[in-house]
Amino acid sequence: MARIALNARLLIADKLEGIGWFTHECYSRMIAAHPEHEFLLLFDREPARMFDYGEHATCLRVWPPARRPWLYDWWFDWSVTRSLRTWKADVFVSTDGMLSRRTPVKQLAVMHDLNFMHHPEWMPTAEGNHYRTRFPVFAQIASRIATVSEYSKDDIMKQFGMNGDTIDLVYNAPSPLYVPLTEDQKERQRLQWSEGNPYFIFVGSLHPRKNIGGLLEAFKMYRLGGGQADLLVVGSSMWTEEMKSLEGVHWAGRLDRQSLAGAMGGALGLVYLPLFEGFGVPLVEAFACHVPVIASNVTALPEVCGGAAAALVAPSDADAAASAMLQLERDAGFLKGSSERGAQRAKDFSWDHSAEALWQSIEKTLAS
Fold first, then answer.
1. What is the pLDDT, as a whole number, of residue 98?
2. Which of 218, 236, 266, 276 has the most CB atoms at less than 10 Å from its CB?
3. Which pLDDT score, from 0 to 100, does residue 273 have?
């Protein structure tokens, strides 16, 4: 029997973001599959009941709430270190990539991407400085690292001088809620989100690296080219305000998972043009809904699309994105073929497989 401690500070009910969902989907399946081991989930706030994963998994709130850079250090270096020692943990798994610099316990860091190493200006100064100074240290003290794409694996190796043999791949996946909709269901979604008009969709935080300006420029060019569909933008602002008033653009804000899956399933296509991604979860969510994808041709996005995208375009090329949107609207054969390729690609991703891959990484860490 192993005693496995898990960083659970991003498990926040009703506020799960990308890493939070990765954590929830993997932890819940992994714990259910391994009742022979003991698990300790370390929270920095009162844990919600939805994170009670089984009798062999204990939830522990560890003070202080780690919501600022200097509190990250306090929480990981002192509070987590003390909890690992008291509980006699065999390994500490951290799905947000941050580790304790003071514990002798073996540690597995999941590093989703290194955007902060390339573009610190996309974060508040204190956050950017913290990530840029701490993550090279975390990479050196980790017993193993897991990441979500070959692109991120290569980036970690280059940035931190790592050996690829100590880095494991654990892909993201779509929730089972993401399914293709009937025509009647699509019509209901259009009535709810875009006044009955067909719509393209973007899903993601309204963050500088998501290239919201480029998305809006592409939509404007699409409309100037005669496009008739609207654009639904789903997500809330981070760091800077990205919302702008533009005819045909609907700002939905943050949606619960059920509503988001419905909105995705009702879309004519996903337009996703970030400047940097370690994976890009909305891509596989769209594929699972049989919704065509227009995506950036940079970082991990071509890898995740795997040849299934309707179009891969430079994030700065608004004309190319607009042309692809017009083709999806006007060419039924192109729309059908893109949908079918995405549906096939979606079969390559599942949270069951991801949880098993994370578990195998944990086993390698324990054996190291």
1. 98
2. 218
3. 98
Report pLDDT digits (tens) over 203-230: 998 888 999 999 999 999 999 999 999 9
Q: Which two tokens stand for residue 288?
A: 């699972």
- Which residues does the chain have with pLDDT short of 70? 238-244
Distance CA 85, CA 83 (A): 5
Cβ atoms of 345 and 287 closer than 8 Å: yes
Give the angle subtended at the CA of 75 by the CAs of 130 and 156, to the nearest 5°: 45
Please state the length of the chain: 368
pLDDT in tens, 261-284: 999 999 999 999 999 999 999 999
How far is residue 258 from each of residues 41, 104, 263, 270, measured CA to CA in Å?
A: 26, 42, 9, 17
AA identity, residue 174: P
What tokens appear for 289 in the block? 């809904």
Chain centroid, CA 88 distance in Å: 31
pTM: 0.94
Predicted confidence at residue 288, as pLDDT, reads 98
Query: What's the CA gap between 181 and 353, in Å, rounded?
Result: 25
| Domains in the chain, CATH or no CATH each | 3-172+351-367 (3.40.50.2000), 183-346 (3.40.50.2000)
Backbone angles phi, psi at 167, to 5 degrees: -120, 125
Positive or negative, the Cα torsion across 356, 359, 364, 367?
negative
Can the peptide bond before residue 136 be classed as cis, meaning omega within 30 degrees of 0?
no
Residues 313, 271: contact at Cβ < 8 Å? no
